[in-house]
Amino acid sequence: MKLKILIVEDHPSMIEGYKIILSYNTKDYEIEATSAFNCKAAYDIITDTNEFDVILLDYSLPAYPEKGINSGKDLAVLTRKHKPDSRIIVLTSHSEALILYDLIVTVEPEGILVKSDFSAEELLKAFELIVEGGTYHSTTVTQNVSELLSKKIYLDSYNRKIISLLAEGIKTKNIPNYMNLSISAVEKRKVQIKDYLGIDKGGDEEIIRKAKEAGLI
Which fold has domain 2-148? Predict the structure, then answer.
């Protein structure tokens, strides 16, 4: 059986490594791989008529700002629109819980593997499981997002964005400039965030400190 694979990774040596690993699959799949080294090249391939069984996406990639494609996550969202039958595997160096959580709830990829977690054997195991209809999260993904998934109401996309903006040094009064929220709505959401993080007293600095302790940022 031939499998058509798209590998999006900005390091050519990594692409060659993935090809070699996948060629050792135990199911006798014949791998036909297409490569892309940045978001623009991947955008052009994903939006054309070619179909792929599996798309492997690195999370951190050279952006394509003209189309608002800045990461592997954006490419995954694009893939869901243009290649709904393709199975998505995101490979990332990021272990931050908010990034991993955001991937899961926004894209629901069939696989997420943190690069520091997996060996060649684990990547191949995940690949074969996903091709057969399963899903796979590497150890760090499972450990870091399990609690967040149990409390989705606290960490919807708005609250995740607020935490990220605070961590970037944006003051609360200026957050409405970055989000479609009033200052009162931001303050109400900060109450939810503090509740989740177990903060009784303290301001933005305490939110950042607790979020870092929790591995969110």
Answer: Rossmann fold (3.40.50)
